[in-house]
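idk why but the lab printer keeps eating my pages so im just putting this in chat instead. protein + manganese (II) ion:
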Amino acid sequence: MELRIALLPGDGIGPEVLEQAIKCLRAIEETFGHHFTTKEGAIGTIAIDKTGNPLPEETLQICQEADAVLFGAVGHPNFNIDPKAKTRPEQGLLALRKALGLYANIRPVQVFSSLVDNSPLKKEIVSGVDFVIFRELTGGIYFGEKKINEEETVASDLCEYSEFEISRIAHMAFKAAKNRNNKLTLVDKANVLVSSRLWRSVVSKIGESYPEVTLEYLFVDNAAMQLILNPKQFDVILTENMFGDILSDEASVIGGSIGLLASASIGNDNALFEPIHGSYPKAKGENIANPIAAILSAAMMLEHFSLYEEAMAMREAVDKSLKKGIVTPDLYPDTKYGTSHVGDFVADYILEYDDDDFKMNDENIGLGKSTII
Ligand code: IPM
Ligand code: MN
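predcted complex ->
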């Protein structure tokens, strides 16, 4: 398969984790005979420094011309301490989601059996957790009208949703539930917000066309609690933009590290894949950032193009790195391995995909000996 991939490394650890994902994609290319072409674009702080714009026109064009976008991270502490900064790196990502129409953000949460002890929660609570969050991504309070009065003493952000925006992601979430364990939980704040009540009425109506799927409703405050008390109860969670942002960060710690969680942002004409973690500026260039979320985002990209065996090879390789303890310090503080070692191991393991003898004796797989980059 030919795929044109736009690469947006962004800020902080974005470039180094993305580099590992690309290594693994090159290994897939070689092993399965595909052809992936890449074009890189600037976004976030680097783009602001270069052009004054967190999403330069040229970058948007690269993405529009690509089949898919692989994204690193955006964000820089300089902007966090200046609440008056008019231009912020995060605006680049938000503008990109809007411009590409990426309305459905899919965030799977799974606990790797080899990592149950890494979770801050008890083993019996986390082992076997497997759910997916469908977060609406181009509406709600993120994109509603923003106001501040002249004296800058009163400000507001509007949370607006239309039936159209709710139903397109709801259908996607119901279809996912049908292919999983037939349960969908709509998370909202319908006891307070009229926009949430619209979500409930639209989603319950759509639910009638998916009779095999059990539809449950949960207020977001309760959902935050349930994620910690009993995360195994969830199969598909459907929610609006801001609730999904917060709950997916919360959910990410269930598996032991935010550095493990991948995501796909899907629209009708394009798709973007990114780790859910941020730019982690303190770790930039230290070779300590966990590349697994970025690598698994690339696996989600392969699945998006129906390259299931390829994605499985990548996931299997990631599993193996975890089982063998070839992990970054967020998972094992005394590790001797860094970002690039994990990437090398996973890429090398993929390259040996067809070699069962080699895999049986995988002690042989050389770290840092990847020949493909
Ligand atoms: C995410 C991030 C973004 C968001 C930021 C960087 C704008 O936190 O993808 O979850 O809030 O959506
Ligand atoms: Mn977030």
